[in-house]
Design goal:
Length: about 160
């Protein structure tokens, strides 16, 4: 009987890590698509409602309040989209899963829960306590964009 070749622990770890990275990338891509669709709908509704002003004062107030809530929700989702795009760029560049602060690996468990994390828990906590990083916007040196920069087709 031929002997089975044993796979080294390092090779198994690398294979598992690669599989985890592919799962996280798939999750990010799926969430990105869902956010794009949601933002497309929300922003389309906001643009349409701008042109349809009618009714009495109460209707106008309700429309205004609804538009404000939709706008705030679109902003939050737009921020998440920015973080997802950033994570996808880090995957492509090979920097994904490395803490931007200390350079250590971010545990896979943290990345599975928060796939666009750029810092390990320790560094994230320290940065938040120091008021240096809110976890919402790109850091210095990176391009910042808003929902106005998203390519959406309302035709």
């Amino acid at each position: 009987m031929p002997k089975k070749k044993s796979t080294s622990g390092a090779a198994k770890g690398k294979k598992k890590s690669s599989r985890s990275l592919e799962q996280i990338k798939a999750l990010l891509l799926k969430r990105r698509e869902a956010l794009r669709e949601t933002l497309h709908g929300q922003l389309g509704t906001l643009y349409q409602s701008e042109g349809s002003r009618g009714g009495d004062v109460v209707d106008a107030a309700l429309d205004s309040e609804q538009n404000e809530l939709s706008s705030q929700l679109a902003e939050v989702e737009g921020r998440e989209l920015v973080l997802i795009e950033r994570a996808l760029r880090r995957i492509e560049s090979g920097e994904y899963g490395i803490c931007e602060s200390c350079g250590q690996k971010i545990p896979v468990g943290r990345l599975k829960i928060l796939p666009y994390a750029t810092m390990c828990v320790k560094c994230q906590r320290e940065a938040e306590l120091a008021g240096e990083y809110e976890g919402q916007f790109p850091l210095a040196g990176e391009d910042f964009f808003t929902t106005n920069d998203l390519e959406l087709d309302f035709s």
